[in-house]
Amino acid sequence: MVKLQPLLCGESISAQQHGRTIALLGPPQLWWASWFAWVCAVLVVTLGLLVLWRRRRKACSCDDVEKRNVALVESTRSESNLSSTMLTRCGGADSRMSATPQMTTEPADENPDDEEPEGVRLNFVAGDDVHTVYAQYKPLGIIHDSSQPAVVDGFFCNSYAEALGVQQGWRLQQVDYEELDNGMSSAALEEFLHSHLAELSTWPLNLAFKSPAGRDGSNGTTVCTFTEQPLGFLLANRVPKITKVCAGSPAHTMGIKEGWILVSIGEQVVSPDSNTKEIVSMLREAVALLPDSGAKFAPAPWRPWGSPSKF
Q: Domain for residue 111, yes or no?
């Protein structure tokens, strides 16, 4: 109501009315509309600040992950030097340490008549670069890409190819100057490599053990070299400790004792806080690369808290 004539109580309207208009009605005043507008503005500003905060938090999180990955790579590189500090060796076989993997980077059109290092020549392609290595042992221990078998997708534990310097993502192009078929399947590639590497010696598996303090008067580390499976010992399921050595086995011949602690598999360090299941998985992976001698040893005994793993 915009304008209202004053009326006195107890008197008639006609006696007090001036003109024809008693009251003038205007549009209703929506007092809540301004409040609604303010609430909407506050919500928009709050949502904007929330989006900016989440973007900033995500960026910070990515930076932290990258820093942790860099630290992990540096830690892995430092731990790989454990093998240089080993004190004694057992088993009499030192073929792996005496073999120095040879790797060169050469142009693809090098004259094949030139004098070359011993071994089977392997050419890998990475972009525009051709990397040549000479294999003197087998198997290579490469995990091939499922869709492109010639591409290196990874390495098994104690991989010889990794020791040669082969890197993930490289594509195998030639074996002894023989080109690989681009459409070759994984099975055909394995057969192809086997035929070319058949005459080579087996890449040995080095296992480092440490005896418990005061057990045999020695606290040193012993490295044993295996060239065939089975190895002939049982490994506990909670800690990487030898629980039994089978008589007549390679482990028995090398003098491995019950109670010894496994501290490295090839170049892979086994730390005291390592997950035992992961250790067993890595060891099985490395042992699977060795040829099977066909020897049979007693099975692992059943335990209610978990049977030991047989190798």
A: yes
